[in-house]
Amino acid sequence: MHPIVDMSPRVRILREVKCHSCGTLFTPKAPNQKYCGLACQKQALKKAKPRQRFHALRCRNCGKSFVPQKPNQLDCCLACHHQWINRRRQLERAERRLEKWAAALRWSEEEAERVNEALKDALDPCPM
């Protein structure tokens, strides 16, 4: 039940409405006020079913399923996050070394790509 607001020029009269929590009649201070006071609002929030904010994801590092706490969380825990970062750095360093070796040994692009894929497979703990 929403409060009825009379929007005559420069005058707003809010009529009594029923509290959504305890059911008592009260005069709201704002047009969208649903509860008679802070205690009723807190009680209603405690009763409310907690929403699941995010869908379950797979950890990039260990592959476990988890529900993220933040919208940009991609790993199940801080340890997995650090392992993922270290693995990415290792892979980037290895790719740079491979490019130098490929240029020095005059490898064909196909051979360099084959070695690069083998390197990625060796460093990836859980292929997805």
Task: Tag the structure with descriptive keywords.
41% helix, 128 residues, two-stranded antiparallel ribbon, alpha+beta, 3 helices, 2 domains, rod-shaped
How is the secondary structure organized here?
Blueprint: E1 5-8, E2 11-14, E3 17-18, E4 25-26, H1 38-47, E5 57-58, E6 65-66, H2 78-105, H3 109-123
Antiparallel strand pairs: 1-2, 3-4, 5-6
Helix pairs in contact: 2-3
Structural class: alpha+beta
Helix content: 40-55%
Task: Tell me the distance between the termini.
Answer: 50 Å
SSE string, helix = H, strand = E?
EEEEHEEHH
Largest sheet: 2 strands, antiparallel
Number of strands: 6
The low-pLDDT segments are none
The dominant shape is rod-shaped
Number of helices: 3
The proportion of residues in beta strands is: 5-15%
The average pLDDT value, as a whole number, equals 82
Radius of gyration: 30 Å
Q: How is the largest sheet built, in terms of strand order?
A: 1-2
Question: Into how many domains do the coordinates divide?
Answer: 2
Describe the protein.
This protein has 128 residues and is α+β, with helices and mostly antiparallel strands. The protein has two domains: 5-47, no CATH class; 57-123. The protein is 41% helix and 12% strand. It has three helices and six strands; from the N terminus they run E-E-E-E-H-E-E-H-H. The protein has helices at 38-47, 78-105, 109-123, and strands at residues 5-8, 11-14, 17-18, 25-26, 57-58, 65-66. The strands form three sheets. A two-stranded antiparallel sheet has the order 1-2. A two-stranded antiparallel ribbon has the order 3-4. It has a two-stranded antiparallel ribbon with strand order 5-6. A hairpin with a 2-residue loop joins strand 1 (5-8) and strand 2 (11-14). The radius of gyration is 30 Å and the shape is rod-shaped. It starts with a strand and ends in a 5-residue tail after the last helix. The mean pLDDT is 82.
